[in-house]
Amino acid sequence: MATNAQNYTATIVVAKPPHDVFKSLSDVSKWWGGKDLEGSTTRLGDEFTITHGDVHYSKQRMVELIPDQKIAWLITESRLAWLERDKHEWTNTRLVFEITPNGDGAVLRFTHEGLVPGNECYARCADGWNTAIKDWLFRFITDGTAHF
Questions:
Q1: pLDDT at 2 (0 to 100)
Q2: Which of 17, 19, 75, 78 is least crowded, fewest Cβ atoms below 10 Å from its Cβ?
Q3: Quick one: CA dihedral 2, 128, 130, 61, positive or negative?
Q4: Which residues, 6+ apart, have CB-to-CB distance to 45 below 8 Å?
Q5: Of 77, 83, 85, 95, which Cα lies nearest the Cα of 32?
Q6: Residue 8 phi, psi dihedral angles, 5° rounding
């Protein structure tokens, strides 16, 4: 899927080197999913699911992995029960994390490719990602505080 300026993005700047950011990002159950995550999240081809009751189900496969620089997951299955038009809006979208050095720290840019303002879930999902990336993941990277 091509990069599009309308895709949801979030950027955080942390006082940790890219290697530490990458390591924290790979420990997905600590910042997204918690006990609702099943599967593996560390190697190319790994698959994991996140199931939050009857409300959210998504299955991700790691499709790109550049240590200390980039991780991308393709969402191969999804079901967002609260949607009215297309409960599978996330299917075939990508979650992309790009890490760049920034002095002694790093910048992490997250893009949900395919999550665009025209999607029924956009506003609610953007709010959710803002919390997951800018709060939960930021705190986990900076001070090791796991959300789950």
A1: 47
A2: 19
A3: negative
A4: 61, 62
A5: 95
A6: -65, 135
Query: Which residue bears the tokens 């959210």?
Result: 56
> Please, which residues bridge with residue 100 across strands?
107
Helix, strand, coil % in the chain, rounded to nearest 5: 25, 40, 35
Residues 6+ apart with CB under 8 A from 88: 77, 78, 79, 80
**Mean pLDDT for all residues in the chain:** 95
Residue 1: per-residue pLDDT? 44
Look-up: residue for tokens 């879930």? 121
Q: What is the pTM of this model?
A: 0.94
Q: How far is residue 66's CA from residue 18's CA, in Å, rounded to a whole number? A: 11
Per-residue pLDDT tens over the stretch 96-121: 999 999 999 999 999 999 999 999 99
E strand or H helix at 140 = helix 138-143
Largest CA distance in the chain: 46
Of 147, 78, 148, the residue nearest 119 (C-alpha): 78
Q: Which domains are delineated in the chain?
A: 9-143 (3.30.530.20)
